[in-house]
Amino acid sequence: MKTQPTKENISSYIIQAQEQELKRIALELHEGVGQTLYSLYTGLQLIEGNVDQSMKGYMEDMTQLLEKTIQEVRLLAVELHPPTLTTLGLLSAMKTYLKLYTSTYGIEVDFNVFGDEVEISEKERITLFRVCQEALANIAIHADTIRADITLTWEPEGLFISIRDFGKGFDVEAAMDHSPGLASMIERMGLIGGSCTISSRMQEGTSIEFFLPL
Fold first, then answer.
1. 3-class state of residue 49 by DSSP
2. Domain housing 182
3. Positions of the chain with pLDDT under 50
4. Which UniProt keywords apply (predicted)?
5. What CATH code is carried by the domain that includes residue 108?
């Protein structure tokens, strides 16, 4: 006898399908659009060295604009699906993402890791990356700060991830009613048996704690 899928199973299926599509789009961005833009960038650099003085300023502006566009495409590709997440794991993917994040948004992130990394499933790696990504995006958009901290702590009972900013803070209860991003973090962690705790104080910043039992 067939059983009806639960709400959790349906959510999990939807997320898995979304991740596969994001992975495909990220690959096309990196190997298609990204490579084409880089070819144009190198071509412009060659032309820049052979134009008269009156055009040099214009060519420099165009080269800088193209360089900025390449950086944005790289960040978008990593946001959609970091290639190292599957092959090298969560820590490598986070380091790659944080470099692009800082260069794009100007927010310095102090990244600390304690304990020995434990192998976790691909589903868990993707989920943890996504919730960290959501938290960092919220900092860039809402926190009004130039500094944040991320700490990963591997302990026998599980992985603890703490993300803290030093921005303007917000009313957590009020935000939960109209913030799909916050609700998504909590739901995603629940689907892998983990938890998400959000706390914030006005003018003092926000702290988000993720926990994944091992």
1. coil
2. 87-214
3. 1-5, 10, 13
4. ATP-binding, Kinase, Nucleotide-binding, Phosphoprotein, Transferase, Two-component regulatory system
5. 3.30.565.10
